[in-house]
């Protein structure tokens, strides 16, 4: 049987406790022996050298120190027996080792406590090291899955048997999660690609329609095409593992406002924006997130106003405002859950639906190190704040 099979957490803990107890005993024994009077060194030297508590209770008079005076002897009583050879007069007889004075006992206990505390601190750090490695690998796994970075790999030959097994399970789980993420992206990409064929047929079937109807239907098809392009671009960015890059926020918001205005949508851009605001993000992912926020504002508020401002702590805030009824404060976080959207009447509460726009927008923002926050505006309506790092 190899030693690595015996290297378990139980064995490590057992060895650690034994080493700490022995070290505490040896340190206390060495220090206390240095405090013993020379006349009693021979007696105290008989203290046990194995791990144990010092002899004697700390609140009682130790044996060998100032014995109580003998009772008065009557003249008709025989004299007390003489002590055995080699035992000093006045020394009480006993079978155990001599007791230490209370001061030395407390010194012994205090030294043992200090050594045990120091050993426990070092031991806790030693035993917790595998947990810290696992926590770091879990954080790296989250970043690897969200941003397309390389997955962390734990050393399966390091640590106790329990940690080695945990490392093997973690590595298999990481690989499986990456496969599931890739499969999900591939399925979405295939769906987006396959939709091109029916959209092309729809364009051909628009020819017999009157001009007004043909133009309106063509705009809808163009919008679907743009969404498919954005989806495929986001998937390409994730697959390639591209890093965030500086983006001119003002130019992006202006392009979005122009695109929606061409489609006849009431989307405006604040004309008081700062001259230069750059954010760090992936272009396709940022555009897709903003498009989802604008669609949400148009659907529930009837209009959308785009603006931006410098945030605090090295962040930039991209704002999408609407004039709708807002969201009840207790539901502001729930609307980010997939497949959940609010009912038309606020008093009806949430209901299941195709509420994916906000969930996708938040996920894309978090992949670039940002966050998405919703809040009701004091004057009415809803404000979506997309907070991103400065580029």
From TrEMBL:
Topology in membrane: Multi-pass membrane protein
Swiss-Prot/TrEMBL catalytic activity: ATP + protein L-histidine = ADP + protein N-phospho-L-histidine
Enzyme class (EC, first level): transferase
Entry-linked Pfam families: HAMP (PF00672), HATPase_c (PF02518)
Enzyme Commission code(s) on record: 2.7.13.3
Location within or outside the cell: Cell inner membrane
Annotated region (Disordered), positions in chain: 53-99
Bias (Pro residues) ranges: 54-91
SUPFAM superfamilies noted in UniProt: ATPase domain of HSP90 chaperone/DNA topoisomerase II/histidine kinase (SSF55874), Homodimeric domain of signal transducing histidine kinase (SSF47384)
Record keyword Glycosyltransferase present: no
Listed transmembrane segments: none
Segments forming domain HAMP: 125-182
SMART domains: HAMP (SM00304), HATPase_c (SM00387), HisKA (SM00388)
Protein name: histidine kinase
């Amino acid at each position: 049987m190899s030693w690595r099979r015996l290297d378990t957490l139980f064995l490590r803990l057992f060895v650690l406790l034994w080493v700490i107890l022995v070290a505490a005993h040896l340190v206390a024994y060495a220090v206390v022996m240095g405090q013993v009077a020379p006349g009693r060194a021979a007696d105290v030297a008989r203290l046990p050298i194995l791990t144990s508590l010092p002899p004697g209770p700390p609140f009682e008079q130790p044996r060998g120190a100032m014995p109580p005076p003998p009772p008065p002897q009557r003249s008709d009583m025989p004299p007390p027996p003489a002590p055995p050879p080699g035992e000093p007069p006045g020394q009480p007889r006993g079978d155990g080792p001599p007791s230490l004075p209370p001061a030395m006992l407390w010194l012994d206990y205090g030294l043992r406590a200090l050594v045990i505390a120091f050993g426990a601190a070092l031991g806790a750090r030693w035993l917790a090291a595998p947990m810290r490695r696992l926590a770091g690998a879990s954080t790296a796994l989250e970043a690897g899955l969200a941003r397309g970075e390389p997955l962390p790999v734990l050393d399966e030959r390091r640590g106790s048997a329990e940690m080695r097994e945990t490392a093997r399970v973690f590595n298999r789980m990481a690989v499986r999660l990456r496969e599931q993420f890739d499969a999900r992206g591939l399925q979405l990409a295939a769906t987006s690609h396959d939709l091109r064929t029916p959209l092309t047929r729809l364009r051909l079937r628009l020819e017999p329609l009157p001009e007004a109807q043909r133009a309106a239907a063509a705009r809808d098809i163009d919008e679907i095409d743009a969404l498919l392009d954005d989806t495929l671009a986001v998937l390409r960015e994730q697959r390639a593992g591209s890093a965030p890059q500086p983006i001119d926020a003002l130019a992006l918001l202006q392009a979005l406002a122009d695109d929606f205005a061409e489609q006849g949508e009431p989307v405006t851009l604040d004309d008081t924006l700062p001259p230069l605001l750059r954010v760090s993000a992936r272009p396709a992912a940022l555009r897709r997130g903003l498009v989802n926020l604008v669609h949400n504002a148009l659907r529930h508020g009837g209009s959308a106003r785009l603006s931006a401002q410098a945030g605090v702590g090295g962040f930039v805030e991209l704002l999408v405002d609407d004039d709708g009824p807002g969201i009840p404060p207790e539901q502001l976080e729930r609307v980010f859950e997939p497949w959940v959207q609010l009912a038309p009447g606020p008093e009806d509460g949430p209901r299941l639906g195709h509420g994916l726009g906000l969930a996708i927008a938040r996920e894309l923002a978090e992949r670039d190190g940002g966050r998405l926050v919703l809040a009701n505006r004091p004057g009415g309506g809803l404000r979506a704040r997309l907070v991103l790092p400065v580029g």
